[in-house]
Amino acid sequence: MSASTIIFYIVSALVLVFGAMSVFTRMIFRAAIYLLFSLIGIAGIYILMNMDFIAALQVLIYVGGIIVLIIFSIFLTHQSGDKLPKPLFKRIVVAAGMSAFGLILTLGVFYRTAFKATTEMGVDHSARNIGRQMLDYHHHGYVYPFEIVSFLLLAALVGCIVIAVKIKNK
């Protein structure tokens, strides 16, 4: 086993552990911090794949923007030290069932896919190629889906703030 493979397994394990801790903790501020560490680990995986530009975007957008926004939202609602309520048993059972279904579906697709070694050239993941693909309106541009996702994230953020303010005023 090479050193990069060992580092990949270590970083992947850390991403999974911090992701699980983010989901299962009842302290909301700690959940945001665990999510921060998980996203930094994903940037580390991008670096191991020689995708430095994507890793920089991961850190800049998700770690530097989204997580900071989540932490500010937590502090603005004055609930940074509060514990989240215990989930209902019924919801736990439904979530476990849906997770098991998703895992079975993913493994089914994985085992049915025939992976073949290829000698074809890989996709160019340079900043220039990514920029051209993002702004190319004629062939397969991604600027419209990118903007739609940004509006969706903005709407979700506004909705979260409205719900948090309503809960706080009760």
Automatic annotation (TrEMBL):
Locations listed in the record: Cell membrane
Please classify the protein's predominant subcellular localization into one broad category: membrane
EC number(s) in its UniProt entry?
A: 7.1.1.-
Q: Could you list the residue ranges that cross the membrane? A: 6-24, 31-49, 55-76, 88-111, 142-165
Keyword hit for Membrane: yes
- How does it sit in the bilayer? Multi-pass membrane protein
Describe the reaction catalysed, as an equation.
Answer: a quinone + NADH + 5 H(+)(in) = a quinol + NAD(+) + 4 H(+)(out)
Query: Is Repeat a UniProt keyword of this protein?
Result: no
Kindly state which keywords UniProt assigns to this record, in alphabetical order: Cell membrane, Membrane, NAD, Quinone, Transmembrane, Transmembrane helix
Give one Pfam hit by family name.
Answer: Oxidored_q3
Q: Name one GO molecular function term.
A: quinone binding
Extract the InterPro entries matched here: NADH_UbQ/plastoQ_OxRdtase_su6, Nuo/plastoQ_OxRdtase_6_NuoJ
Broadest EC class assigned to this enzyme: translocase
Q: Name one GO cellular component term.
A: plasma membrane
Family, according to the entry, reads as follows: Belongs to the complex I subunit 6 family.
State the protein's purpose: NDH-1 shuttles electrons from NADH, via FMN and iron-sulfur (Fe-S) centers, to quinones in the respiratory chain. Couples the redox reaction to proton translocation (for every two electrons transferred, four hydrogen ions are translocated across the cytoplasmic membrane), and thus conserves the redox energy in a proton gradient.
| Protein's name in the database | NADH-quinone oxidoreductase subunit J
Organism equals Prolixibacter bellariivorans
Tell me the gene name.
Answer: ndhG
